[in-house]
Amino acid sequence: MRHNKKFNHLGRKSAHRQAMLSNMASSLILHKRITTTTAKAKALKIYVEPLITKSKDDTTHARRIVFSYLQNKEAVTELFREVSGKVADRPGGYTRILRTGNRLGDNAEMCMMELVDFNEAMLAAKEESSKGRKKRSRRGGKKSEEAAPVAETSRSKKQAPAAPKEEAPAAPKAEEKPAEEPAAEAPAEEKE
């Protein structure tokens, strides 16, 4: 029976599984994005996110703990220099899993796993959406000083439509005269 055994064994013995997750975590840290199966990506997420959290505290002890998991000096250096600086203000959720469809050979569900703060395309799209979108609320929440000019503008709007109605008939007459002159010249040219 499998009571209280929650993690995916991925069809491997313990040593093989630990080595595979260590290699995948190193690749993810060094390359910022990897393509793998969804089951492996979910297992890797559980494996790598605590290591990224440990990297926020740049001490010798933290480096040694992370090295015991990764067994790769370059990956540990990259994690503590580059990655920890970008995720310093993020409280968790450092990775993203994007499903890409099924593999041709065995129809396994594939995905792309990446570090969240290193996808420039999504970061640019997020900045554009935050610039274009303004926070709106249902309540006015305005001070009494700001409310007075609003009342004045609403009165001026009521008076404003009356003035354009007087100007509107004068404007078409001016436009009609130039339109009549070319019409008068056209028949004269045809007669000649």
What can you tell me about this protein's structure?
Helices cover 62% and strands 10% of the residues. A hairpin with a 6-residue loop joins strand 2 and strand 3. It has a three-stranded antiparallel β-sheet. Helix 1 (14-31) packs across helix 2, helix 1 crosses helix 4 (73-86) and helix 3 (60-70) packs across helix 4 (73-86). With 192 residues, the chain is mainly alpha-helical. The longest helix is centred in the last third of the chain and has 30 residues, at 162-191. It has a domain at 14-119: Ribosomal protein L17 (50s Ribosomal Protein L17, Chain: A, Alpha-Beta Complex).
Beta content comes to 5-15%
Low-confidence residue ranges: none
Order of helices and strands: HEHHHEEHHH
The total count of helices amounts to 7
Cα(first) to Cα(last) distance is 108 Å
CATH architecture title of one domain: Alpha-Beta Complex
Query: Total strand count, please?
Result: 3
Write down the CATH topology of one domain.
50s Ribosomal Protein L17, Chain: A
Output the structural class: mainly alpha
Helicity range: 55-70%
